Amino acid sequence: MAEADLKADLHRYLREARAALLWKLDGLPERDIRRPLTPTGTNLLGLVKHLITVELLYLSHVFGEPFDEPVAWFRPDAEPNADLWATADESREYIVGLYRRACEHSDGTIAALPLDAAGHVEWFAEPDRQTTLHGILLHMIAETNRHAGHADVVRELIDGAVGLHEDVPMMAPGDPEWWADYRNRLELIAAGAAPS
User: 180 pLDDT exceeds 90?
Assistant: First the structure.
């Protein structure tokens, strides 16, 4: 496979993961995209905000391609987990818009560099600090899909919506009764696996 084709494939997978993540916010009110639905506070808008950080660190900082817009939670005095939740002043439009701009900036880095372009990830342990655009693209696809998976679960907890995209459910066919029976069957199997 030619390098241009390989880079295009990797970039396509990254774009698809980004789109799947953003789709999970569609149609939800502000409260629901901000609600922490796990004991560690996982929420939909926070996942998008975190991926702004990921885009800007891995596809900007690592390759010396500065992003010109200030990002408040990059300040040294930012509190822990500042990129995992949106403050009251950070609207959906601001977070999603900043994510889109960060992705556009990342796309420029991807377009400008060959797959073997050298990068330095200062927060990785040696010998993994030296990397390439190819390695970072793989990391970005994994990281974005990981958090899109978190968003899948959070969205299902909010309103039951599931699937990769609105038109691509990627789920077994079944009405609500079938899914309830399926879940109950799994619960019975789990109960039977518990030690007596």
Answer: no
Question: Cα–Cα distance between 119 and 145 in angstroms, integer?
Answer: 22
Q: How confident is the model at residue 196 (pLDDT cuts 50, 70, 90)?
A: low
Q: DSSP states of the chain as a string? A: --HHHHHHHHHHHHHHHHHHHHHTTTT--HHHHH---STT---HHHHHHHHHHHHHHHTTGGGT----S--GGGSTTPPTTGGGS--TTS-HHHHHHHHHHHHHHHHHHHHHS-TT-EEE-TTSPTTTTEEEHHHHHHHHHHHHHHHHHHHHHHHHHHH---SSBTTB--S----HHHHHHHHHHHHHHHHHHS--
Provide the whole-model pTM.
Answer: 0.91
* Straight-line distance from the first to the last Cα atom of the chain, in angstroms, rounded to the nearest whole number: 55
Kindly give the interhelix angle for 3-23 and 133-159, rounded to the nearest 10 degrees.
20
pLDDT of residue 165 exceeding 90: no
| Cβ atoms 69, 101 nearer than 8 A | yes
Instruction: Return the structure tokens found at 119.
Output: 């990068």
